[in-house]
Design brief:
Layout (H helix, E strand, L loop, with lengths): L1 E2 L14 H8 L6 E3 L10 H7 L2 E3 L5 H6 L3 E3 L3 H7 L11 E4 L7 H9 L3 E4 L14 H20 L7 E3 L2 E3 L3 E5 L3 H13 L2 E5 L6 H6 L3 E3 L10 E2 L2 E2 L4 H17 L2 E4 L14 H4 L7 E4 L16 E4 L2 E5 L8 H21 L15 H6 E3 L1 E2 L3 E2 L1
Parallel strand pairs: 1-2, 2-3, 4-5, 5-6, 9-10, 9-14, 10-11, 14-15, 15-17
Antiparallel strand pairs: 6-18, 7-8, 12-13, 16-17, 19-20
Length: 380
């Protein structure tokens, strides 16, 4: 198994940590880690060496190491496929595993198929009970929800908790969270820990119990026909009529909010536009919006990836790479997710304890198998 240095700008995470090196080596795997792969996330080369991994120089003889690899583990695997020439050295049937941006990415799919490589896109992992320990999107969304509230609190022109001072009482900040998925619920929990009063809006009425269990106040979805539900653990795309009614409902809440955390996303589709320019005009100058969906088009009109925009006196923070800002723990969680998936694939090997089995009858495998090439039987 080969772990290359990440090549996408701004990516600070790593796919394997010294902890998971030991875990995988205990299963008979051999790990090769490119020098400096974990540096940005606080994992030094020496720690990998002590854990048992072989450190390789990416500048000298890299193609030879890639040619002998059965598996390449990465965070931004799509960038590795597109930018690392060594990918051409991989033998047919080798497996590339990581985030592949699979939705509508036919060009990458054709590239991998032409090179006769197997690839598993972790974004497509099914949200079923058996796959919870492998769920990369959930572990990283958890971090994003946490960090989003910290960003909003730092940018806010008010205290977050209630304070009783000699000069009088300061009322707690009011947080509005759009979306009660993993990121939204972590944002809610973090806002409550900081002392904010938190309101949560979600298109799924079923989210009310989770919101209230964390001390939040649930804003019920609009009472119209054909309410969106969820499929595979993700919210379904809402109709335009529903979204229009929701925006009218949210306008009143936005006028009262000090910080807004936008987390609503639908896999494979542009993020729903929940806050438009007219709604922003109702917000208090000095308030803050953190848009976690900005890379998919954004929940808030005017937000831009990786930057802060001032619009009608409201700060719009386009937070598209928040897990990278908590690189050490984000890498630790990502690596554990990857190790759990690999252990599942190794367990399917039966009498061959170090052979990965891509059983397409397994819903975990079939759910995230992006391309497949069987050296014995050809591409599948």
């Amino acid at each position: 198994m080969l772990v290359p240095r990440e090549c996408r700008s701004g990516e600070t995470r790593v796919a394997v940590t010294p902890e998971t090196v030991k875990r995988l080596m205990a299963r008979g795997c051999l790990l090769q880690v490119e020098q400096g792969a974990g540096e940005a996330s606080g994992f030094e080369d020496g720690a990998y060496g002590e854990a048992g991994a072989e450190l390789i120089d990416p500048e000298a003889g890299a193609a030879d190491h890639w040619s002998r690899a059965d598996v390449v583990l990465a965070v931004q695997a799509a960038a590795v496929a597109q930018q690392r020439r060594e990918l051409e050295a991989l033998r047919p049937g080798a497996l590339l595993l990581g985030l592949l941006e699979p939705h509508g990415n036919e060009a990458l799919k054709q590239q991998l198929e032409q090179r006769r490589l197997s690839a598993m896109a972790l974004e497509l992992l099914p949200r079923i009970s058996r796959a919870q320990t492998m769920d990369v999107l959930s572990s990283q969304a958890n971090i994003a929800g946490y960090k989003a509230v910290l960003l909003a609190s730092a940018a806010l022109d008010r205290y977050v908790p209630m304070l009783m001072t000699a000069a009088g009482t300061i009322q707690p900040a009011r947080a509005l969270i759009l979306g009660a998925g993993v990121a939204g619920l972590q944002a809610l929990a973090t806002a409550r820990r900081l002392g904010a009063v938190a309101y949560v809006s979600d298109v799924r009425a079923a989210a009310k119990e989770q919101v209230e269990s964390l001390g939040g106040r649930f804003i019920a979805p609009p009472e119209i026909e054909q309410k969106p539900g969820e499929t595979g653990g993700y919210a379904q795309q809402a109709s335009e009529a529903f979204l229009a009614e929701q925006r009218r409902q949210l306008t009143e809440q936005l006028a009262l909010a000090d910080m807004v955390i936008c987390t609503a996303q639908v896999p494979g589709r542009p993020a729903p536009r929940l806050i438009d320019d007219a709604m922003l005009r109702h917000m208090r100058p000095g308030s803050v919006v953190v848009d976690l969906a900005v890379a998919q088009g954004g929940n808030c009109e005017g937000s831009q990836p990786g930057t802060t925009v001032l619009r009608h006196g409201v700060q719009l923070i386009g937070a598209d790479q928040l897990p990278c800002s908590v690189a050490n723990h984000a890498s630790a969680l990502y690596a554990r997710n990857v190790a759990a998936l690999l252990e599942h694939l190794l367990a399917a090997g039966g009498d061959q304890p170090t052979a990965l089995q891509l059983d397409q009858e397994d819903p975990i495998v079939s759910g995230c198998l992006f391309t497949h090439h069987n050296p014995a039987g050809g591409a599948a």
